[in-house]
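[Meeting: bench + compute handoff]

Bench side (C.D.) handed over the final construct sequence. Compute side (W.E.) agreed to return the predicted structure before the next meeting so the bench team could plan truncations. Sequence as handed over:
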Amino acid sequence: MPLESAPGRAVALAVLIATTGIHVGPLIGPGVACATIPGMPAQLDDLADRLLRAKNMAHLAVPRRDGTIHAAVVWADVDDEGRIVVNSAEGRLWPKLLRNAGSATITVHNAENPYEYAGVLARLAVDSHDDADAVIDALAKKYLDADSYPFRVEGEQRITFRLEPERTWGYR
């Protein structure tokens, strides 16, 4: 059975799952797929990595206690370990919800082609004030071409979160 046929792809996926333990999620259409390896953190796929490193806005979604979803538009990047880096200020809602949930869903689309997007289910790995001012300055350079974050509020304490990917998906 040729791999190009739908039954051929189904057989190949079944073999992949049976021999490796990798779970391949739903194939929604051409170019859309997701994969996870049970018990192991995922790596960002090429699409997610490329979109997050570019000057594209990301959306961070976390659950509220009542089960509804809170979404925030955020600046994001990827660190040397392949984790998603986001930054905020203490006292805002989404950091509190992220800490409570311990994970978030990040989506990012190509600003030049919004039909090209990636999604990442990610676990909170680092919650730190240590490098937060330097991180927001680096994000301001990326998004605004400014040497430092121009919207600082006196007395505001910045916080950086590093999120470890657990599952990725997307559409090209």
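W.E. noted at the follow-up: The chain has four helices and nine strands. C.D. will use this when planning the next construct.
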